[in-house]
Fold these 2 entries.
Entry 1:
Amino acid sequence: MNKTRKVSFSGIQPSGNITLGNYMGALRNWPSYQDEYDCVYCVVDEHAITVRQDPTALRHHAMELFAQLIATGIDPEKSILFIQSHVPAHAELGWALNCYTMFGELSRMIQFKEKSASHADNVNAGLFTYPTLMAADILLYQTDIVPVGEDQRQHVELTRDIAQRFNGIYGDVFTLPEAVIPKVGARVMSLTEPTKKMSKSAENENSYVLVMDSPDAIMRKFKRAVTDSDACVRKSPEKPGVSNLIDIYCAATGESVEEVERRFEGKGYGNFKPAVGEAVVELLRPVREETERLMADKGELERLYRLGAQKASAVAERTLSKVHKKLGFLPR
Ligand code: ATP
Ligand code: LTN
C-alpha cells in the first residue's frame, strides 16, 4: 500500500457463527470496496476474548469466518485479509493509545454498557478498553473509511477523536477515518425481541439467523418470528417485529418498503413470513455453499492467512515505528 488509493478497513469478531445481521450490515458490502479502495479485512480474535470463549470453538469460528469472508467475495490476493492476533502491532499500538484515551470517553461507550450488563460476572479491563484496540486496528493502516453496521458508529467516532488528539500533540501521524454505514440492513433486529439488535452471542437461537443455517432452520425461525396481533404488513414504530421483517425482506430482494407493503396488502403474516424466509434462504445459499467448499481445504486457508499476516505486518509496522519514534521510545 503506497496510498495512491484510499484505504478501507473493517473487522469482525469470531465470537460465534455469523448472523444475517452481520451479513446485511457489514460483510455483504465489503467486497464492493475492492475496486475503489485498498482494502484490509481482519478477523478480530483479540476482541473476541473480551467475552469468555471456548478455545476449540474460537479456533473453529476464526477459521470459518476467514473462509466466509472469502466466500462473500473478498479476494485474499488482492486485498489484505488476516487474523488480528497474527500481527502483534495491533496489541502494541492498542497499548499506546490506551494512554491517549480518557476513562470518561470509554465509560460512555454504548457497547461497553450493554456488554457489561449482559456479562455482569466478567466486566474485565479488556471489555472496557475494547475501543482503543479497535482504534489501533483502524489507525495502523492509515484508514480513510470503515464500513460497519450502525452499532459501530460511536467506536469509529472515538477512533477519530483519539487520532485527532494524537496528531494535535505529535503532528500528522494518523489519517482520520470515517464510518460508512449501509442504507439498508444497517441494523437488523432480533427475531424474538425486535427492539434489540440481532446478535450472534445472544442466548436464544431463535433470535438470530445464521449464515450457515440450513434452509429448513431459516424457514422455521422466520415462521416463529415475533410480530403483533393486527396481521397487517406495514412498517411503523409501534410494530417493531413486522418492521424488522419488512426491512430484512427489502435488504434481501432490493425492493422498496412501499412495493412490499402493496404486494402483501391484506395477505396477513401467514403469507409474508415464509416469503421473508425464502428470500433469505436464497440470499445466503451461495455464501453457505462456498464456505463449505473452502472449509474442506484447511491447508489452503492456512496459506492464505499467513499471506495476509505478512502483508498486514508490513504496513502496520511502518505506522507503529513512526508512533514509537514520536513517543520517544529508543529504536529497536
Ligand atoms: P457479538 O454478538 O459477539 O457482539 P456482533 O454480532 O455484534 O457480535 P461483530 O463481530 O461485533 O458482531 O460485528 C461485525 C459487523 O457486523 C460490524 O460491522 C457490526 O456493525 C455488524 N453488525 C452486527 N450486528 C448487526 C446487526 N444486527 N445489524 C446490522 N449490522 C450488524
Ligand atoms: N468492534 C467491531 C469489530 C471491530 C472492528 C474493528 C470493526 C474490531 N476492530 C475495526 C471495524 C474496524 C464490532 O464489534 N463489530
Entry 2:
Amino acid sequence: MKIVLATSNSHKIMEIKDIIKDILDKFELLAMKFNVEENGKTYEENALKKAKIAYEKTKIPSIADDSGLTIDALPDLLGIKSARFMEEKSYEEKNMTLLKMLRNVPDEERTARFTCVAVFYDGSPHVFKGVMEGKISHEMRGKNGFGYDPIFIPEGYDKTTAELEQSEKNLISHRAKAFRNLADYLKRILK
Ligand code: ITT
C-alpha cells in the first residue's frame, strides 16, 4: 500500500518519518508537494484541504499536517498564520522581530504553544491533534529543528526545541503527539 505525505516542508518530512518509524515498513510513504492555498480558519480546515487535494490528485490515501505557534502576549499574530508571518524574511529575522516585540514581557507572560493537526484522508477524513505547551525564550538558541524552534522552550525544559536532539523533540512535540495517534490508527487499519 502507498500513502502520500503532502508537504513542502522538508523538516516536517524528517520529523514525521522519525515519529512513525515503527510502522514505516507497513506501507510506502511518498512525500509530495502540492500547491494549496491555506486560507482556512482553523488548523483542521487547512490540514484537511492539503490532504484532500493530494488524495484527489493521486487517488492515493494522503496525510498532511497544519501547524503553528501561538504566543499569548501577541494574540492573532501567528497561530494558523505562522507560515505567512513576515513571509519573505528568514526565520532568523522573524525570530528576532518576535523577541524584540516581547522585549518588555516578563517570563510569566511569555507563554506559548505549538499546535499540530494531522489528517489522514482516504475518501473520508481522520483527524489527530497535538499541542506542546511552553514559553518564548529571551534570545535565540540552538541550531536543530526549524522555524520558531530557536525561541521556544517546552514546559519542564530549560532548552529551546532547537537545542534538543531531533529524537528528544520527537518525544514531546505537537507533531509527535498528533502523528503517534495517526500511526496507531494506521496500525489498526493496516492489520
Ligand atoms: P506545508 O504546509 O507544505 O506542510 P509549511 O511549512 O507551510 O509546510 P504549515 O502551513 O503547517 O507548514 O506552517 C507551519 C509553520 O509553523 C511552519 O512553517 C513554522 O514556521 C511553524 N512551525 C510549525 N511546527 C513547527 C515546529 O515543530 N518547529 C518550529 N516551527 C514550527
